[in-house]
Amino acid sequence: MAPVRGWRRPYGGRAVHVAPGVEYQATTTQVCGMYPFVAGAGAPSIGTPIGRHQLSGEVVCLDPLTWLRAGLVTNPGVFVLGQPGTGKSTLVKRLVVGAVAFGSTALILGDTKPDYTPLVGHLGGQVIGVGRGMDRLNPLDAGPLGAALQRMSGPQAQRLRWEVRGRRLSLLLALCTLIRESRITNFEEVVLGRAVDLVDERLRREPTVPDVLTVIEEGPEALRSAARADTDGTYRERTRELVFTLDLLCTGSLAGVFDGPTTRPLDLTAPAVAIDISRIGAAGDKLLTAAMLSTWAYSFAMVDACAALSELGLAPRRAWLGVMDELWRALRGAPGLVEYADALTRLNRAKGMASVMVTHSLADLDALTAEEDRAKARGFADRSAITVLAGLPPRELARVAEVTPLTGPETELVASWSAPDSWQPGARHPGRGKYLIKTGERLGIPVELSLVGEEYRLYDTDPQFGPFEQVGGNAQNLRIDSGA
């Protein structure tokens, strides 16, 4: 076989320069018989078009649910890793647009910046802004599950009631753990569970955290029996810390967000739903974590409600794409929160839901305090059949290789995207819009995404760093003098 440029000998056909192939363009009417081409690079052609293969130029498509139905992957989980500024959110937004176009419902489970809110509004979806003085989320609100329960009867309704009860208690325990910064004891869990039951029996509306606090402070006979307390004094002593924890949920740093009824229920008919919690970020990590946990629970209740109704033939079956961006910010709030997130996301495949988890580094997950939490957090990446790598440094790729096998050339390629190669202003980051798609033991697919049309505006995650606006025809600039 001759080398690429020919043999290095006289009359060996040596070519000093190999000219590129000629590219011809024509309409599909003229060249319809030539497409699809006889030979390809093996890139998947089903799903949302992501970009072109960096080596062959072939169009690469990605959609976790479509790939699952085609047997390309075993579960619809996507784990996206990359340095800030490499375009992780841009890729996820393209997936969101594609999911909505194919008939799936996109759920943005806590928009912390907000990156996705303008896009959801553009798609005609529902945007809920959570924060003090804005919309409220009731952690004990059954939400769409409660609406589904009203349309059901018999054993199915009873099973759903237990599911609603379990979700309420799980989220309340997670919030109490967050406030206390330590786990709730088994004794307190028993008391909380009985209190939630009593409130649900008494009220003809969705219970709230203040309702649960009031019942525990009253100390009815059912709660004293659950607390194994013979006297009122014993009961008060045993529930003292629990009362203060619940009181902090209502009057502490989380006041005004989770201490009342839900103000804007989720729209089951919306093509996409974004819960904007960006206003909460300035109030501290604790409030942000609480908002993300409540958002996850409320959104997954929507998915479960639609699944329960479809099983009974009361509603059509639906597909979902859930986006969990800034994942690490929710998991580091307090010990034990990883377990709650793990329980919510583990059965997504059975619900017809694809999940996209986005974080900067696996080191974010390793920063959790408890070893048990770190192990479960790493399981998020292990369970995701699809891993998408944007620009990452070599030390991070060594961690990734422990979860997703990487070849030497793949490691070198992704590492080459991790840092700018120029100090010139306006130079394009080498990793901007470049991704390596990995699925199991298959070779990675290097793809480069190009924006089109309205995407330039809707996908911009740094609008505050744009050029100065002109007011009255004069650019408004800020001048800083050394003597100021």
UniProtKB/TrEMBL annotation:
<protein>
    <recommendedName>
        <fullName>ATP/GTP-binding protein</fullName>
    </recommendedName>
</protein>
<dbReference type="InterPro" id="IPR027417">
    <property type="entry name" value="P-loop_NTPase"/>
</dbReference>
